[in-house]
Design brief:
InterPro entries: CD2/SLAM_rcpt, Ig-like_dom, Ig-like_dom_sf, Ig-like_fold. This is Hepatocyte cell adhesion molecule-like isoform X1. It is found in: Membrane. The protein has two domains: about 90 residues, Immunoglobulin-like, CATH 2.60.40; about 110 residues, Immunoglobulin-like (Sandwich). Helices cover about 20% and strands about 40% of the residues. It has two helices and 19 strands. The protein has a six-stranded mixed sheet with strand order 3-11-10-5-6-7, with no helix packed on it. Strands 1-19-18-14-15 form a five-stranded antiparallel sheet, with no helix packed on it. The protein is elongated and about 115 Å long. The N terminus is likely disordered.
């Protein structure tokens, strides 16, 4: 039987979405879908030029005077999202799209001699951020809290905390996907579900203010409601009966008076 629980849902917190990655050497970088991605490709651009390639062709090159995007990428829609900042060697992609994911090659040259002074690879992975956490909780007939945590997004990872400390196997039975747990019915306190992936994290907490009892609160509430309704019907019926009785009483008395009135004889 499901129970109406004595609990308080607390506001959740979210972190992330602005993705910054040190891509000055071989690196795997994660970016949030729809958010800005900052890839630092080199630390010092002074005296250097740079070229940036995907697996098929060159995308842009940093020349002494400016950044030049090659033909296929020199379009308004692309340039609105991609920008290279020579002052700090950072590539900004905003907003990031699924098609931006891939393997890129960075080549750095000496500006004076044109000789290569470094080359490295950047693997860019774009993930959809995890959404706000949805917590569902019930009290089972065998006196256990059953709690399920769910969130949308790419590759969500779940973790649970009770009063700020990670839940242990002594506290709860966790499902294989870590989304559902069973808690001993006498557990109270602040229960938190945290969900994260590589680009952001979010959590929601609930205060368990009462123990989980095998007697369903729903059953008790319905039983009390039925008693109240039945009592109201009885009181209402009695009131209608009394009102109707009083309404007919004067007519009966009048009839009796007419019958008892003596007739005069002459």
């Amino acid at each position: 039987m499901q129970a109406v629980l004595l609990l308080l849902l607390l506001a959740g917190a979210s972190k992330g979405l602005d993705s910054t990655c040190d891509a000055t050497q071989d690196a795997a970088c994660y970016g949030a879908l729809g958010g800005p991605v900052y890839l630092q490709l080199m630390r010092n651009t002074s005296g250097h030029t740079l070229s940036f390639h995907n697996e098929r062709k060159a995308i842009f090159t940093l020349r002494p005077s400016k950044t030049v995007f090659y033909k296929d990428y020199n379009t308004p829609s692309f340039l609105q999202r991609w920008q290279f900042v020579p002052d700090n060697g950072t590539l900004i992609i905003n907003p990031a799209e699924r098609k931006d994911a891939g393997t890129y090659r960075v080549r750095i040259f000496n500006k004076s001699t044109g000789k290569s002074v470094g080359e490295h690879t950047v693997q860019l992975i774009i993930e959809a951020p995890v959404s706000d956490v949805d917590l569902s909780i019930s009290c089972s007939a065998n006196e256990e809290w059953r709690v399920r945590c769910s969130s949308n997004g790419d590759s969500p990872q779940y973790s649970w905390y009770l009063d700020g400390r990670p839940l242990s196997e002594a506290d709860a039975d966790l499902s294989a996907d870590i989304q559902t747990l069973l808690l001993n019915g006498n557990v109270t306190g602040e229960l938190t579900c945290s969900v994260s992936n590589h680009v952001n994290s979010t959590n929601t907490s609930v205060l368990l203010l009462d123990v989980c009892s095998g007697i369903s609160s729903v059953f008790i509430s319905v039983w009390l409601a039925e008693i109240i309704i039945l009592t109201s019907l009885l009181v209402g019926g009695y009131y209608i009966y009394i009102r109707n009785k009083r309404t007919h009483t004067p007519d009966e008395r009048k009839d009796q008076e007419v019958e008892l009135t003596p007739t005069s004889s002459y």
